[in-house]
Amino acid sequence: MSTQNARRLSAGMVGGGIGADIGKTHRFGMRMDDRYSLDAGVFGRDVEESAGVASSLGVATERTYASYQEMAAAEAARQDGIDVAIVATPNDSHFEVAKAFLERGISVVCEKPLTRSSSTARQLVDLAERHDAILAVPHCYSAYPMVREAARMVSDGRLGRLTFVDVEHASGWAATPLELTGHKQASWRTDPDVAGFPSVVGDLGTHGYHLARYITGLEADRVSAQLHTLVPGRKVFDNATVALEFSEGVPGRLWASMAATGHNHGLRIRVFGDEGSLEWQHEDPHHLTFQDLEGTTTIFTHGLSSLSEDSARLTRVGLGHPEGFLEAFGNFYRDLADELEARRDARPSTIRELSFPTGIDGLIGVQFVEAVAASHAAGSAWTVPGSVADRDAEIAAADAELREVGGN
Amino acid sequence: MSTQNARRLSAGMVGGGIGADIGKTHRFGMRMDDRYSLDAGVFGRDVEESAGVASSLGVATERTYASYQEMAAAEAARQDGIDVAIVATPNDSHFEVAKAFLERGISVVCEKPLTRSSSTARQLVDLAERHDAILAVPHCYSAYPMVREAARMVSDGRLGRLTFVDVEHASGWAATPLELTGHKQASWRTDPDVAGFPSVVGDLGTHGYHLARYITGLEADRVSAQLHTLVPGRKVFDNATVALEFSEGVPGRLWASMAATGHNHGLRIRVFGDEGSLEWQHEDPHHLTFQDLEGTTTIFTHGLSSLSEDSARLTRVGLGHPEGFLEAFGNFYRDLADELEARRDARPSTIRELSFPTGIDGLIGVQFVEAVAASHAAGSAWTVPGSVADRDAEIAAADAELREVGGN
Amino acid sequence: MSTQNARRLSAGMVGGGIGADIGKTHRFGMRMDDRYSLDAGVFGRDVEESAGVASSLGVATERTYASYQEMAAAEAARQDGIDVAIVATPNDSHFEVAKAFLERGISVVCEKPLTRSSSTARQLVDLAERHDAILAVPHCYSAYPMVREAARMVSDGRLGRLTFVDVEHASGWAATPLELTGHKQASWRTDPDVAGFPSVVGDLGTHGYHLARYITGLEADRVSAQLHTLVPGRKVFDNATVALEFSEGVPGRLWASMAATGHNHGLRIRVFGDEGSLEWQHEDPHHLTFQDLEGTTTIFTHGLSSLSEDSARLTRVGLGHPEGFLEAFGNFYRDLADELEARRDARPSTIRELSFPTGIDGLIGVQFVEAVAASHAAGSAWTVPGSVADRDAEIAAADAELREVGGN
Amino acid sequence: MSTQNARRLSAGMVGGGIGADIGKTHRFGMRMDDRYSLDAGVFGRDVEESAGVASSLGVATERTYASYQEMAAAEAARQDGIDVAIVATPNDSHFEVAKAFLERGISVVCEKPLTRSSSTARQLVDLAERHDAILAVPHCYSAYPMVREAARMVSDGRLGRLTFVDVEHASGWAATPLELTGHKQASWRTDPDVAGFPSVVGDLGTHGYHLARYITGLEADRVSAQLHTLVPGRKVFDNATVALEFSEGVPGRLWASMAATGHNHGLRIRVFGDEGSLEWQHEDPHHLTFQDLEGTTTIFTHGLSSLSEDSARLTRVGLGHPEGFLEAFGNFYRDLADELEARRDARPSTIRELSFPTGIDGLIGVQFVEAVAASHAAGSAWTVPGSVADRDAEIAAADAELREVGGN
Fold first, then answer.
1. What are the φ/ψ torsions at residue D208 (nearest 5 degrees)?
2. Do A326 and B319 touch (CB under 8 A)?
3. Residue C210 C-alpha from the chain's centroid
4. pLDDT in tens, D155-212
5. Which of C200, C315, C386, D233 has the most neighbouring CB atoms within 10 Å?
6. Is A378 on the interface with D (CB under 8 A)?
């Protein structure tokens, strides 16, 4: 549904063409509250295909570009250039694409893992800061109202002192060697040159890790990890188990898998404190479960009048009307729009305690991936995220083991 | 998100202003797939308020009208007039508003219950047919992919011969005398002059009844009903229980309530056949449960690769990513867009076996309301929907009893 | 496990031989707390078979009888005769068997429906009273701790004023014409001469009705009912839907079915009040769900320290350790043992507000069956339980219709 | 319920007096199928208290002993001495008590953890073999019919090649410093001299580990573990996370906790294979969930006619009638009775592929506890169960760390 509102934010997209579900998801999210206009883009490497997608999306021919470089240059030069660029390409190009926009002062939404090494991730964070641009990373699960509610419950002390954190993103989507069938997403996600060896950690593990950080407010001080290849012959690790020691000495666990046979999605978190615990899972996102010390269970539903302001602000319909993944993406884009508009209109920042994830979160995610890989390569030795100096050495070690284990 | 696509369908809205959640829901649904442009409207009776809403929605001032009559006349006269008018006003004005557009050949989406009597409902159906306009009724629960899947399972014979149907839409939203607090929706829904005496039957009962018809393909041959006022002093019936005899002699039950304390939403259906049964509930809409003769339970999730074409067509993201109420509204508007475009472009009708509900469904819904009221007034006597000649008499009878029971 | 405790109660059984699951269930229940000794019995009509069962159960040969008449006479004559007789025969013999023991002052546990007519049921109640014997009816679902908890919550006012009651016992056990396969239980339960025409109402409906009465403390003032035969050719009604008006004007519904395809058991109750609602279902018996006015859901588990004394008293293991059907039977027999011992030892009665069901409950159950049949025969006319003067006339009417509907 | 059956097995109990729930649970289990007679015992260290318990259980005065030594000697000397001794004392006495009976050829049921070190556990296993006695360990969760079904599904290849195992027994029973309140069980379970430092691993971890072994048929080749003290000041570890490498290179996880706030019981297992996965949890023990490669979920219920013989054999009532923890204990005792009777009557062994856990399972459990403690003490280094030569050294190391972490 279009409106004539001249104040709508202007957006461009790189990637997200045919076969790229994530691009569609971003567009649904942007469209949800009608605060963005998709005005420019490069929708894939095939020029004709890209033009077709652009046309179907109503993007003008003159703003359908042959490359992201061209797009960044041209849009930066326009009076009415885009306010934000969405980077929805495979992992290996995130850095170059995001860099091109950020260094021209154009805000960026970049898919996770932000980049393939913490040094490049840090560069993006620095670039964004230097050029006063926003760098947002769509860990959109944190935009679900009931996740916001969970974070609020923790910060309000409803759980007491935190004692244990358990998170998993164990999906079954690639429990078979899907990459051998020509499946586009499976192909690049199991290609170590594109997705990295610890592929599943970057893809799903970072979602789980961000969710844990977002709800608890804790950071991992150190990790002890194991990487596995559950599908024989696969060229990347498709399963990871991690023991974590969070700040304040809180222990925890994380499990990431793309080969958890039968699981439909598999993102789920449980947080324990000395006065209660909570549980949230993505396959039933509009409920949040709380258990008290005695063992009584309370289920809160999205839309209840007693929920926090954070949760209420993100309620579109009301009690009993489920909202899902697209609404969560919409929430991410709504929070982002608040901030983009504030900057455009030179108003104070709208970023709240509970808001959209940024480049810092992306960087922390990449550091987590590196620490997991390094710990695994060192026989599950405890490893401090951010301390891994030379990632290539770790990658090489992981590579060596993988070739052995995976029989490649 | 806006595009320049000149071919987008043009829509107008009557009602759906401040405090009217249903108007927002329609707009979310229309926006979902970016196939409508909201170009005209009357957003409430207060002219200034309406102008404010119009402006925030990007509706041009010259197409923000003072009345639906003016709007119908002006839009019909424009070359680029609206393709469809959304009627989102309280029940008592549905007939006049819808009529104004239909008789000018403008298609209409009209909220349920379609009108307050079957004779006026039939007039709208006839008008739509005579003027070659579409009259669509947003029983949007039937647009959930897993409801489509349920209907497909029944028509494919997976349940065998149907034996029993149980449906309920028992919500707790008005379990207290909310109307005494100034709550806008509660006020008109408990005002017999606006919502009718059997208010809950028209509001929630028709949803349940449509869902049962949609999934089973059956119609009620006769009903035996009871109406109750669970909240003392309430001026309408807020609870109804109905025994049904569907076509082919299949027995069934329906329960509608706005006073089922604690229930968040409460729409749920179970269909039994001699080879299996299924269950779907709106509070977990992306799952469909099937039980076989032995008692084994199978749960199907939205996005599974084995689901029917109907379900797959309406899948936006994929397995494990919940879609909710707004997506269902989006599906309704998508199916409608297919048909509106086909008519605009003089292509063959796109209406499939499983498609959006029309005025006929709206008429059948009103007949159901009348039959329930009549049966109740006659001591639960079996009553044939469509046979109630003089509704006013029945209303009077119900009225009389209500005054007695409710102590008004 | 046996003990030498001479004070154990002595029990005898009529029926419950080979192929009779209910007899085994009674024995498990009696054994649970080791307060009964099974000392006498007639385990079926086949003398040899009965002797085999008796021997396997350790019943002495001299107390294994050829008929219930013989057993009643002999046991009444013994110094160490049985304290209680368990009647676990098909419905048509309940009256004669129970009568034989009661009129000799021997307490009786008699399966439901107590008898086939309210006049005979009343005779048993009177006999028990006259001979100072206990007549207990094993509606054992009311012996689940979480059902006791539900009843306590209602009586403590946690739900406020009751507004609606919905109960169903809709099983799928006989969704196929099992009786044609020689299935023993299906054969007699679908034989109108043994189980009566409204078979499913007597078998499962009375359980649901008792559960509703037990939890709410309400009685049905009148009913409007429908009986169906979902399995073609079946000689009894296998499905029933009932609208109820409980005391204090509280409306309700009941659904009984033996042909709800796919259902494993299907006993479930929901009770609504103006301050909250509760739900319990037998397939998950150790949980009780409460929903408050706002819509927040609380789940209580058997064994929680905050539960009522009634519930705690019946907890054998503790929180998190599920107890099931046999434990419920054990609870029935435990409460009964308290009372039998009190009478034996001339102590005051132990019967509490929430205790085991007696002959009065059995009589009310039979009156309910009669009212349902009568209402159905009269086109769902509202009928007062206990008012059906001549049940034979109603049976005849039901019979006539059944023959028509069922095509027999 | 007692019978005169002279062939009933004779049992004695050590421990299980007042306040000892586990003793009651054993007695319920033994009583369930009426195949044991409790004839002898020492029910606690207080002689009078023990006599009181004995009397209430119908144990003769002359077979109520002052000590287990006396009991073992006296019962071994009797013609009609006990067939089996139940050891239900705290952990630290298991070895001495079990040894006293086994070396006299009396079979033993000994609670887990079998002993406090693998060397003593191995001695018991050897003793049992040498004296031709049965040593059974009540990991009774493996006696649930749906756990048997799970094991059968794995061995039948329904999951394909196993890929991942996830098990947890995370309870919230001691999430507060219950030991400070005089709570009997909490006192000894948090006393390192009685329960050992890795208390929760021995208590709950061994249940989880046994369940994983029982269902998958795999053994852990090595573990990498973390021990935590979630309740400050507690003298033992109350939380443990373990990464496992099972035989055939299958990775897995285990989590044991007595401080998982809010959890009622918390035993749950998920097993993944390359063709499907299954899940079972103790709080809903009569269901077993299977998910196929596509993501469709199937729920099997205890009592379904299609279940395996193992499951059917242990079904007491039937579909839809929940059986719980006591029935599982009953199943353990039933399987054990089969074998005890076979030995008594000199018939062939009845031990099946899926049967009751024995001393070997107990020994493996103790080795697991030792390996977890050793890995933790060595900074989560991978450790091979059974390889830990000097447990005392590990205990000392764990002790040292605990004092540091726990602040003792």
1. -65, -45
2. no
3. 8
4. 999 999 999 999 999 999 999 999 999 998 899 999 998 888 899 999 999 999 999 9
5. C200
6. no
Q: What is the pTM of this model?
A: 0.95
Nearest to A295 among C294, C297, C319 (CB): C319
- Superfamily holding D9-136: NAD(P)-binding Rossmann-like Domain (3.40.50.720)
User: Exposure of C348 by Cβ count < 10 A (0-12 exposed, 13-18 middle, 19+ buried)?
Assistant: exposed
What ranges do the domains of chain B cover? Answer: 9-136, 143-317
Q: Mutate one of C292, C297, C300, C306 to test the A interface: name it (highest A CB count within 10 A).
A: C297
The dotted CATH code for B143-317 is 3.30.360.10
The CATH superfamily assigned to C144-319+362-406 is Dihydrodipicolinate Reductase; domain 2 (3.30.360.10)
Please tell me which of the candidates A294, A298, A301 has its beta carbon nearest to residue C305.
A294
Burial of B378 (0-12, 13-18, 19+ CB in 10 A): middle
Size of interface B-D (CB pairs under 8 A): 38
* C-interface mutation test, from B163, B165, B277, most C Cβ less than 10 A away: B163
Is a pLDDT exceeding 50 seen at residue D5? no
CATH class (in words) of the domain with range D145-316+362-405: alpha beta
Please write the tens of the pLDDT for every residue from B319-329: 999 999 999 99
CB contact under 8 A, A34 and B282: no
Q: Is D48 exposed, middle or buried (0-12, 13-18, 19+ CB in 10 A)?
A: exposed
Whether residue A204 contacts residue A171, with contact meaning beta carbons closer than 8 Å, is answered with yes
Neighbours of chain C (3+ CB pairs under 8 A): A, B, D
**CATH class of segment(s) A143-317+362-405:** alpha beta
Rg of the Cα atoms in chain D: 21
Q: For B387-398, how does the pLDDT look when each residue is reduced to its tens digit (9 = 90+)?
A: 865 444 455 555
Secondary structure class of C14 (helix, strand, coil) = strand
Q: Between D172, D261, D382, which is nearest A380 by CB?
A: D382
Residues of chain D found within 8 Å of residue B301, distances taken between Cβ atoms: 295-297
Neighbours of chain B (3+ CB pairs under 8 A): A, C, D
- What is the ipTM for the molecules in this complex? 0.93
C-alpha distance from residue C58 to each of A70, C129, C330 (Å): 93, 32, 20
Contact status of A296 with chain C (Cβ, < 8 Å)? yes
- How do the pLDDT tens digits run along chain C, 408 residues long? 334 344 799 999 999 888 777 899 999 999 999 999 999 999 988 889 999 999 999 999 999 999 999 999 999 999 999 999 999 998 889 999 999 999 999 999 999 999 989 999 999 999 999 999 999 999 999 999 999 999 999 999 999 999 999 999 999 999 999 999 999 889 999 999 888 889 999 999 999 999 999 999 999 999 999 999 999 999 999 999 999 999 999 999 999 999 999 999 999 999 999 999 999 999 999 999 999 999 999 999 999 999 999 899 999 988 999 999 999 999 999 999 999 999 998 999 988 777 899 999 999 999 999 999 999 999 999 999 998 654 444 555 555 555 554 433
Please state, in angstroms and rounded to a whole number, the distance separating the CA atoms of residues B110 and D379: 68
- Nearest CA to CA, how far is C294 from chain B (Å)? 6
Task: Count other Cβ atoms within 10 Å, centred on residue C233.
Answer: 12
- Cis upstream peptide for A232 (omega within 30°): no
* Chain D residues within an 8 Å CB radius of C319: 173, 264-265
Residues with Cβ < 8 Å from D94, sequence gap 6 or more?
D87, D110, D111, D113, D114, D115, D116
CA distance, residue D221 to nearest chain A CA (Å): 15
β partners of residue A335: none
Q: Report the residue from B163, B255, B291 with minimal CB separation from C253.
A: B255
Does residue C166 belong to the interface with chain B, where contact is any CB pair within 8 Å? yes
